[in-house]
Design goal:
mainly alpha; Four Helix Bundle (Hemerythrin (Met), subunit A); 6 helices; 0% strand
Length: 185
């Protein structure tokens, strides 16, 4: 497969700036390159984790139009990914419980400085975060069952596969997430 040639700024004499037309062509060349990279990523049939996915459905349509759903094979793979993530999170909770949260002997074993209590509070905070992730995973599994998985809750469009592979319990597309973080939604 031939690599596309990266756009180069036009050659010009020293000290002369680009004309607006030269700048526009240069920027459009970069945009075309980035679009080609995104299409190549979307058309991959297998990601780096070995998850087999079909090509991305046409989904980023105008607001208000019907959204295409992910094919059943993709949903099956996302379900596997979510179940594996839930199992890993649950084992983390079990491991933290196994380390012990009993208060008996804390005051004697920490020398009276409260170190064990501080560690326990930190562990409880981590368990809270893990439980929050488990809850989000459960909600994502329910969305697969009811046919709404992968659809952005803000705009109604399909969330891109790379985002779902990275964060399988995401409920918004990157565009809406960025807008929310900037305070526009």
């Amino acid at each position: 497969m031939n690599k596309p040639v990266k756009p180069q700024p036009p050659k010009r004499p020293a000290g002369r700036q680009m004309t607006p037309e030269e700048a526009r062509k240069f920027v459009m060349g970069i945009a075309a390159e980035k679009k080609a990279e995104a299409v190549a990523i979307d058309n991959r049939e297998e990601d780096d984790n070995g998850i087999k996915l079909s090509k991305r459905p046409e989904s980023r349509t105008e607001k208000g139009k019907a959204t295409t759903k992910f094919p059943a094979a993709d949903l099956k793979e996302f379900r596997k990914l979510l179940l594996a993530a839930r199992e890993e999170a649950m084992s983390g909770v079990e491991a933290m419980k196994a380390t012990g949260f009993n208060e008996s002997g804390d005051r004697e074993s920490d020398g009276g400085d409260g170190t064990n209590q501080t560690l326990r509070l930190q562990a409880l905070g981590q368990m809270g975060n893990i439980n929050s992730i488990i809850q989000k995973i459960e909600e994502a599994l329910h969305r697969i069952d009811d046919g709404t998985y992968g659809i952005c809750t803000a705009c109604g469009q399909l969330i891109r596969k790379p985002r779902l592979l990275n964060q399988p319990f995401a409920t918004t597309c990157m565009e809406c997430q960025n807008a929310m973080e900037k305070g526009r939604v």
